[in-house]
Design goal:
With 468 residues, the protein is an alpha+beta fold. It has helices at 6-13, 23-33, 40-52, 74-80, 84-90, 98-115, 128-131, 166-177, 179-185, 214-221, 230-245, 253-262, 264-275, 287-300, 306-317, 332-345, 351-357, 395-407, 419-433, 450-460, and strands at residues 20-22, 71-73, 139-144, 149-153, 159-160, 303-304, 362-365, 369-374, 379-384.
C-alpha cells in the first residue's frame, strides 16, 4: 500500500482553504474509484465520525439541516481515513486500480449499448412467475473483492436467483462437511444433459453428476445444516447470503409457491436418489425427498438484483471473503473447487461450448441472470436479461460474457505459453490464496477507536444485514 500522509490528503481536498473537506467532494473521489456512498462501510464510517468526533460530537451544536452541504473538519477527516477501504481508495490500492476500473466500466457501457437492440430468445414459461418477467429488462453489474461497484441499466431490478444459487450451496456444503464427504453424495463431472434431464442427471449408481444441475443442487443442499429445523436452517442460509450480498436476501414467496406447484420432476429426482440411499437424511421416509426439494425451491427463490449477486460472486473471486463485512465464509480451496465445477458445468447443456469460448467460471439461472467470476481481477460480473436461448441461458448474458472476454483478453488460455499467460496464472493463484486470515477486517489500523470498531462489527454480523 502506498504511503499515506493524512495532512497532505486533507489539503488536497481543501482546495478553497477553509480547513474543511466537503463531504460531496470526498464521496465523488471515492465513487471515481468504484466505491459508492451507500457502501455500508462508508455509510457507517461517515455516520459514526460525524456523530462522535469533533464538532459533531458537541451536543450544543445543531446537526446539519436536510439539504445543507456537509463537511468534515481536520479531526473528523483523520478519523474517517482510518477506515481501511477509504484509505485504500485514496491510495489507489483497491482490487482494481482507478484507471483500470474506468477502462473496464467504459467497456461494459459500450457492450451494453451494442446489445440494447438484441431481442432474440424468450422468457422461461414453465414457472408462472418467470413467465411474467419483462423481456425488455437488461442490466449489468460488477463488484470487486473490495466492494468496488459499477452498474448500468436494470441492474437494480430484483429477480429470483434460480440456478445461480447452486455454486454457493455447493460452497456451503463443502465448508460444513469437506470435499470427501460431499462427493460421496454428489459427483463433480459433466452430466452431458440439460439441468433437469431425468435420464442424464443421475449416474449409474443414481448419484447426481455434479452440483450445478438440479439433482446435484438438491443433494448438496440436503447436506447444509441438516440437523436444524427448517426455519432456522433457512435463516442461517439467508444470513450467509446477506453477508455475501451486503443486504438482506429475502425469499420471493410467489416464486417459491410456483416452484412447489410445478416441481414434480425435481421431486422425482429426489425420490430416486433417496430410494438408492443417495440423499442425505433420506431415512426420514417420504418426508426426506419432500423436505430436500422444498429447501431447494426456497433457495432458488431467493430474491437478488445484479449488484447484490455480483457481490456474492466477488466472495468467490476473493477466495471466500465477503466484500463488505470482510468475513471469511469459504476457504480458498473450497472456492477453487466451486469455480472449477462452474467452469465446466455452469451453463447448462452449452457448458462445453461456452467454456471453450469464455474459459471463466460462469453460472446462469433461468430467470435470465448470468454470473461470471474473474479470479485474476478479483471481481464478478452479473448480467440480467430474461430472454433465454434454447438451453436456458440468457441471450444477452452470454454475449456480454463473450464480448468482455474478447475485449479485455480475459480467457485463461488466451496467451498460452507467453509471459503474459504465466503472469495471469500467478495472479489467479494469488487471487484465491492471498486472503489467508480468517475473520473480519484484520487490516483495521490498531489506532482505530475501539467504540467505532465494535459498533461496526456488531452491525456487520447481525443476521439480515440491511444496509445497502
Amino acid at each position: 500500500m502506498a504511503e499515506f500522509d493524512v495532512e497532505s490528503v486533507f489539503r488536497s481536498f481543501d482546495t478553497d482553504r477553509t480547513n474543511v473537506v466537503w463531504k460531496w467532494k470526498l464521496l465523488a473521489e471515492l465513487e471515481r474509484s468504484g466505491l459508492r456512498a451507500d457502501d455500508p462501510r462508508i455509510d457507517h464510517a461517515l455516520t459514526w465520525v460525524m456523530k462522535n468526533v469533533g464538532a459533531g460530537a458537541d451536543a450544543r451544536i445543531a446537526p446539519f439541516d436536510r439539504g445543507q452541504p456537509e463537511w468534515l473538519d481536520r479531526e473528523q477527516f483523520q478519523y474517517l481515513v482510518r477506515e481501511p477501504v477509504i484509505r485504500k481508495a485514496l491510495t489507489d490500492d483497491l482490487a482494481m486500480p482507478t484507471a483500470e476500473f474506468a477502462d473496464f466500466t467504459a467497456g461494459i457501457e459500450e457492450i451494453y449499448a451494442d446489445l440494447l437492440d438484441e431481442r432474440s430468445g424468450a422468457v422461461a414459461d414453465y414457472i408462472p412467475t418467470l413467465a411474467k418477467a419483462d423481456p425488455e429488462r437488461f442490466g449489468i453489474a460488477i463488484c470487486t473483492a473490495d466492494g468496488q461497484v459499477f452498474q448500468i441499466g436494470d441492474a437494480g431490478t430484483e429477480f429470483s436467483v434460480q440456478s445461480t444459487s447452486k455454486p454457493f450451496s455447493y460452497a456451503m456444503a463443502l465448508e460444513e462437511h469437506g470435499a470427501d464427504f460431499v462427493h460421496q453424495w454428489v459427483g463433480q463431472e459433466q452430466s452431458g444433459g440439460t439441468f433437469n434431464d431425468r435420464l442424464r442427471s443421475l449416474d449409474a449408481s443414481v448419484k447426481p453428476h455434479n452440483p450445478m444441475i438440479n439433482a446435484g443442487a438438491i443433494g448438496t443442499l440436503a447436506l447444509v445444516d441438516a440437523e436444524m429445523g427448517d426455519s432456522e436452517r433457512l435463516a442461517k442460509l439467508q444470513y450467509t447470503w446477506g453477508q455475501m450480498a451486503g443486504a438482506k436476501v429475502p425469499v420471493d414467496e410467489p416464486t417459491f409457491l410456483a416452484e412447489q406447484d410445478t416441481g414434480h420432476g425435481n421431486r422425482s429426482l429426489a425420490s430416486a436418489m433417496a430410494n438408492a440411499g443417495n440423499l442425505y437424511k433420506s431415512s426420514q421416509g417420504i418426508a426426506g425427498p419432500i423436505r430436500a426439494t422444498d429447501f431447494y425451491f426456497k433457495v432458488c427463490s431467493l430474491e437478488v438484483d445484479a449488484r447484490r449477486l455480483a457481490a456474492a460472486g466477488a466472495t468467490l473471486a476473493s477466495g471466500g471473503v465477503t466484500p463488505y463485512s470482510g468475513e471469511r465464509l469459504f476457504s480458498p480451496e473450497n472456492c477453487r473447487r466451486v469455480l472449477k465445477v462452474m467452469e465446466h458445468s455452469g451453463m447448462y447443456d452449452d457448458s462445453g461450448k461456452f467454456s471453450g469460448k469464455v474459459g471463466l467460471p460462469t453460472k446462469s439461472g433461468v430467470s435470465g441472470n448470468v454470473m461470471m467470476v474473474i479470479p485474476d481481477k478479483r471481481l464478478a460480473v452479473v448480467v440480467f436479461s430474461p430472454r433465454l436461448d434454447p438451453t436456458g441461458n440468457s441471450v444477452r448474458g452470454v454475449q456480454v460474457c463473450e464480448r468482455l472476454v474478447e475485449k479485455f483478453d480475459l480467457h485463461p488460455l488466451q496467451d498460452l505459453g507467453t509471459d503474459k499467460a504465466r503472469a495471469a496464472a500467478a495472479a489467479a493463484r494469488q487471487a484465491l490464496d492471498g486472503v489467508a486470515t480468517a475473520g473480519a477486517r484484520t487490516d483495521l489500523p490498531t489506532t482505530m477507536d475501539a467504540d467505532y470498531y465494535g459498533s461496526y462489527q456488531g452491525a456487520a454480523k447481525a443476521p439480515g444485514l440491511t444496509r445497502q
